[in-house]
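Anyone have tokens for Phosphoacetylglucosamine mutase? Sequence:
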Amino acid sequence: MCIKYPIPEGVKISYGTAGFRADASIISSTVFRVGILAALRSLKTISVIGIMITASHNQISDNGVKIADPSGGMLTQEWEPFADLHGNAPDPQNLVNLISEFAKKENISFGGDYSAEVLLGRDTRPSGESLLEAARQGISSVVGAVATDMGILTTPQLHWMVRYRNMGKSSLETDYFKQLSNSFRCLMDYIPGEMTASEMDELIVDGANGVGGAKLEVVRNSGREGEGVLNHGVGADFVQKEKIVPSGFGQADVGKRCASLDGDADQFVYFHVLPGSNNKIELVDGDKILSLFALFIKQQLAVLSKEDGRQVHLGIVQTAYANGASTDYLKKLGLEVALTPTGVKYLHEKAYDYDIGIYFEANGHGTILFSASFLSWLETRNKELASTPEVELINQAVGDALSGVLLVEVILRHMGWSIQKWSELYQDLPSRQLKVKVMDRTAVTTANAEAEVVKPTGLQEAINCEVAKYTMGRSFVRPSGTEDVIRVYAEASTQEEADNLAKSVAQHVD
Ligand code: 16G
Ligand code: ZN
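Reply: yep, here.
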């Protein structure tokens, strides 16, 4: 069976922060193996599983694959070591041995009453079609397993479909859009009063020439004919890292409210263009989106608690990349803030600890999770309303740029805020990110949600020494989960200081 998909010589990929990701030309054997793995996961959980073929914000020649678990979240971390082994199994015999050993350990039986079912989705990358076929063949090599191609989708749509299928609900793409647009309209209708002229200003969306662009009607960088290349000088990741306008935006847009999605629409940031010829922007990043959501929900909860006396445990989850000014702001609001390592799966898991958990990475990955007990209380309370549009607008499976943008729009409208006003919630501390190419990124290990280096010894002390030279200085280093580099982050009271701190810390890493 594997003859068609042998692992190319010398290739070893690992199931990193967000699945397997590499140059598309070397990944089909891995995708085939992930097809098998997803079918096993379906048998194990007796639920529908998802496979998404995407490399998110990476260049167009890359591709990747990740598995969505029954809840619509990421594959359980318990299975990752096996995914690693299995995804790299060199020959058919080795693969079969691994599978049968693992199936025994996990108590998975083949040919039983339940047939595995896997939903497949892909983004707009040209390599997607043949990789989807590889996944499909992997799935069908497990007895009785059924693969359903859901077509070209955003990553969050695929996760959402898996979640809704497993809840026994209708889960087509049209259902997704119906849910989003109904709850959006409903929330907009709740807001009293007429819109002022500035509130009616339209939102301009940069679709990264990706699938998010393809799903929207009015968008720049939609990825349609003649619009440009996926993730090339466009999209949330570019805008967040470079802090300049994406292609297709410029001085004609000064001051307007703009949003950038990434290539698979699971990440978004806002910005407005600053006057001047250098195409600089004022970035409204994931931390500020988080702060807006947190402020809004805190206000709503205050109303609830006045009416019903119910105390709701609201928690905020960030990573070490969160701008120090955002963490300060959130704490000043009286909110509980937890930090986790980088990667959606860690933040998502932590957010389950609360009645309402709001998590965001600075790069714009994030969402809001509501606990089952809170939801059932809310439903009883809102009986007369028949639905809870705030909850329905938010994708509980995974961060979702389309649903996130709609929620931002509702809240800005509710507050009567322009993007400028939102941006002034707090002033970001100047920061700098650098990457250092190294032979072996696993030589660096960290603790305390990546804020501290454990190995190599002496490195943390060296960082501490550098940080001590600056006012408001903060810096950390961590191995990237998606590239062969060590990332360096530094923050200080001026841009020059942040740059210098990052540079000197990078020298210790080298
Ligand atoms: C992946 C993660 C993202 C994280 C980024 C860090 C998901 C869906 N995506 O894109 O959350 O911020 O990796 O990349 O989990 P790095 O490890 O290369 O810095
Ligand atoms: Zn993405």
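The chain has four domains: 2-169, 176-188+287-423, 204-284, 431-509.
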